[in-house]
Amino acid sequence: MDKETKKEIMFNRMKEKKQEVKVVRRIVLIIVLILVIGGGIAGVSIYNYVEKALQPVDPESEETVDVEIPIGSSLDTIASVLENNGIINDDRIFKYYVKFNNETNFQAGSYALTKSMTLDEIIQSLKTGKVYREPVFKMTVPEGLTLDQIANVIEKNTAYSADEFMELVTDEAYIDELMVKFPDILTEEIKGENIRYDLEGYLFPATYAFYEEKPSLKSIVEEMLTATANNVNPYTEILAEEGKSVHWLLTFASLLEEEATQSTDRQTIASVFYNRLEEGMPLQTDPTVLYALGEHKDRVLYDDLEVDNPYNTYVITGLPPGPIANAGKSSIEAVLDPTDTNYLFFLADHEGNNHFAETYEEHLKNIAEHRGE
Prior knowledge:
Radius of gyration: 28 Å
Membrane topology: Single-pass membrane protein
Number of helices: 15
Largest sheet: 2 strands, antiparallel
Number of domains: 4
Structural class: mainly alpha
Helix content: 40-55%
Enzyme class: lyase
Number of strands: 6
Organism: Chungangia koreensis
Order of helices and strands: HHEHHEHEHHHEHHHHHHEEH
Protein name: Endolytic murein transglycosylase
EC number: 4.2.2.29
Shape: elongated
């Protein structure tokens, strides 16, 4: 997390704290006036009581509590349900807080809340129908990263080193555990003879929010696998009808993710790969050569194309043994819905624009025109 982000978070928290103090003072003022008129009670004690009532019940708790808000519930009912479930300290103070902030439109439903949530987080959850919490930190895993590169993202954003991450995601016993937890996406195919890493391509690219300072490394990995499952499961029936697997889908999608310089080209590039597969032609995609070499290079040399490796699509026909990177949603969808073309070739010019051709002669013309070769 950079300094500017930290400053912004601190600034927002200070604003929330000031607002909270104002609300406390207003509530205390009214209660004190009432009590003074009725006989008088020490204002300090009341202030301390109200301030405590506005705090989370247990700031350190991560345990979720299932709370059911019935349809047609009044504010009184909602406050009572929250207090009875230990989510708030005092239902009366909660009601005052809600009224002073003019909060309305709470939704009925089932909520998984925690005792560490603030009143504002609880209110937002009840208004949106979703559990709302301010994350401690966020971590973005971009599209097109290998497992090794994701390890560096983990090291940069968490307390874990890249080596610790790689040790975990290559641990066979842990892989077996994950296969039991995620049977729909993690099948025996990930343990193929030529697979470099079992989980390569299976950790979904997204921005992840975490609600504790140091989530376990396993929870981070499983959060990313859950995201993959959520993005792939809608297509499992289609895959089954076509006789294809999730592993096939993620492998194909990873090639598009690495090849496509523009999102609009993914479906057309997918059509090229499909057409070449149908013709029995090797896919001849440079990113697989780089993956086979295990290094990043700005330019693939002719000698590189001959590397004897099961991932090198210049020397094998068909798809490589497994994904070569993590693919985003647009690449996954492009595999399932390619453009209908007769293209067999494509190349990217120096500006990253792709040029397609149906014949090798047209392809050579594109090379001469757009690459100057």
